[in-house]
Amino acid sequence: MNPDRKTAIIVGVLYIIGTVAGILSLVLSMSILDGPDFLIRVSANENQFVIAALFVLLMGLALAMVPVMMFPILKKHNQALALGYVVFRGALETMTYIAMVITWLFLLIVSREYVAAGAPDASYFQILGSLLNEGNDSIAPILGIVFSLGALMLYYVFYQSKLIPRWISGLGFFAIMMHLATSFLIMFNLQTPFSTINLVMNFPIFLQEMVMAVWLIVKGFDPAAIASGSAKVDIN
Questions:
Q1: Which residues of 47-84 are buried (b: 16+ CB within 10 A; e: fewer)?
Q2: Interval 148-172 mean pLDDT
């Protein structure tokens, strides 16, 4: 198996791992964080909450490895966008995921103190917990914008180079613009996360990334596009 074929398989698997980890983190955390008594539920379900945080970290690390693995291939076609993809998806997005995990771990500490505190002091921990929870919610649209900008760079290089079929890249352009729109709508309080319209607008990027992941695992990159990128490097 040549290195480019191996890279395609690894990237496809990383996409699936990141997506599955993200879904599991939501499944484990939404029932805990939803509602005014979230601090009590966090304290009562510490292990579940920690596992959810670990899934967020796993998602971030898996998706951070994608641009690292892709860079040697992408730079042969567009070095500037390949580097930008690494910065946005590999560095900035990972930092955002880590910030979310740290916020959740602080929230876990606050929940313990809230439960242990007496009535006079409980309100202070409740305010602090609300600030951490709402602050974490505020990170989500920023993460969406960073993710979208990095994805746009990737899909442009894919479309330009024909490393994967252009219909997959084209679907990526459409899907990521929908996702980017939801980030701005949430930021300006025009849409709420996980509302029906939000899920409908975000479904295309989920579908596109899974189709792309399966394509990379089964088919890999187009050999002619790989050869073309190598030829460009040789000419330069």
A1: ebbeebbbbbbbbbbbbbbbbebbbebbbbbbeebbbb
A2: 97
